[in-house]
Amino acid sequence: MLYLTSDDFPIFIPFGVIGFYRYLWYCIRLIAAATYRPVPLPENPTYIASEDVTIIVPTIDAGEEFKEAAESWLVGRPKEILIITEEKMLGPLQALANEVDPERIRVLTVPFANKRLQMSHGIKNTTTDIIVFADDDAIWPPTLLPYVLACFEDQQIGGVGTSQRVKSVGNRMTVWETLAAFRLTIRNLEIACSTHIDGGIPCLSGRTAAYRTVILKDPEFLHGFTHDFWLGKYQLNSGDDKFLTRWMVSHGWSTYVQCCKEAELLSTMKPNWRFLKQVLRWTRNTWRSDLRSLFKERHIWTAHPFVAFTMVDKLFNPLTLLVGPILVSYLIYKSTIPTDEGGYHLPWWNIIASYVVWLSATRTLKLMPHLWNRPQDIIYVPAFIAFGYYFAVMKIYALFTLHETGWGTRTGIGDASAATAAAERLEDEKRALNRNGAHLQPPTNRLYGQQNTSDSSMLELQTSASATPLDRRSKDHLRGKSRVSVRGRPAEDDMDSLEMQFNRFKN
């Protein structure tokens, strides 16, 4: 090695340091992921899916794949599935729901397609303790819900995620789907590592994630979730999972990820070049969220320092990734100059061959967890290497286009600001109708089956986002078994507040 670098040894020192750092960092993550263990199932679970889980699925174009996904969700016996869509899709989705399970699947609508508004509408219509958000193509194993609920035995846990794998759209995976599968393999390792080291995670993926309803019913959360702006003027529609994860951190909740086969979901990816548009959207969301976490909110530094360091590392990752090609290009140029005139002593083909062998070996090593199960995908390793350099350039491009907040891969999703404004107008109209006595019957308390007509403020409480479901576990909280604040974080000091709210609901 010293012979190969003897001509320009000082130049290689910083690059050697970078390479040593990158692979030391990878070894640390590998060891941490190998020692990670999922939360086991409790003998006497506090939460039971048939009583405590509502699955919320925001969608605008669910097709036949929705039926397969819904059937897999129903195996876990959730209390209810809420499909939230735009009004023009009510008929087709209701027909699909009727085919699968009309008793447990309910279709609700919002005036305009907007994922955050759809999720918000689902939250307001939830009466269980746990909400699970799922993509309309996420296929669950039968044991996913019990393993997710096991994490909530810890009253500090506010959100739970899972590991993921790619399901092919056709009979065999395309190169695009394989690239997505490679990325998920690396992600599964990273989230297991960060969860094990300091309990944090950069993002609880929106493909499937569970949260305590009491957190999401908070009016402050609902307003912030549907009025999320980048630089104060670009309203965000995507990036909902990033917002939810940051909210957990900033409000004192812990998170956990169940990385195990029992909780590993299958999800489809774009089987064509549109996958690149997906990656671009995800990359912009990551830039926006990580910059906020690190430099604006800053809770991540004290709550999960390892995750914070990971975020900083990813900020500079495009630059370190491009160091290799830049160095190789420089050496090739030097190899064209005679050695007695300061040129490099190795021929250009030798430099390229050495670099290709090094890349192939190291990238194959990183992908071994995937290749162990699908060795036939080794032919796509060169495509993964090329994609890595494309991704580095694209990540820099994404940094300078963070003002672009469109979905990118779905038609029918309009301007987020217009959709939010329209939804707020409808809410104002409904409140005006309520004040004018347009409802012949007062709202029913779905928790206790009572109609409360004592005063208008109580009706407002029952129908507002803050009307948090209080079931047998909430009563247990009042008896001192465990305490969860209605503001959205575990706290011993909130006992009196929780008692007052419970009594108001009861009376």
UniProtKB/TrEMBL annotation:
<dbReference type="InterPro" id="IPR029044">
    <property type="entry name" value="Nucleotide-diphossugar_trans"/>
</dbReference>
<keyword id="KW-0812">Transmembrane</keyword>
<dbReference type="GO" id="GO:0016757">
    <property type="term" value="F:glycosyltransferase activity"/>
</dbReference>
<feature type="region of interest" description="Disordered">
    <location>
        <begin position="435"/>
        <end position="497"/>
    </location>
</feature>
<keyword id="KW-0328">Glycosyltransferase</keyword>
<feature type="transmembrane region" description="Helical">
    <location>
        <begin position="12"/>
        <end position="32"/>
    </location>
</feature>
<feature type="compositionally biased region" description="Basic and acidic residues">
    <location>
        <begin position="470"/>
        <end position="479"/>
    </location>
</feature>
<keyword id="KW-0325">Glycoprotein</keyword>
<feature type="transmembrane region" description="Helical">
    <location>
        <begin position="378"/>
        <end position="400"/>
    </location>
</feature>
<keyword id="KW-1133">Transmembrane helix</keyword>
<dbReference type="GO" id="GO:0016020">
    <property type="term" value="C:membrane"/>
</dbReference>
<keyword id="KW-0808">Transferase</keyword>
<feature type="compositionally biased region" description="Polar residues">
    <location>
        <begin position="442"/>
        <end position="467"/>
    </location>
</feature>
<keyword id="KW-0472">Membrane</keyword>
<feature type="transmembrane region" description="Helical">
    <location>
        <begin position="315"/>
        <end position="333"/>
    </location>
</feature>
<protein>
    <submittedName>
        <fullName>Polysaccharide synthase Cps1p</fullName>
    </submittedName>
</protein>
<dbReference type="Pfam" id="PF13641">
    <property type="entry name" value="Glyco_tranf_2_3"/>
</dbReference>
<dbReference type="InterPro" id="IPR052427">
    <property type="entry name" value="Glycosyltrans_GT2/GT47"/>
</dbReference>
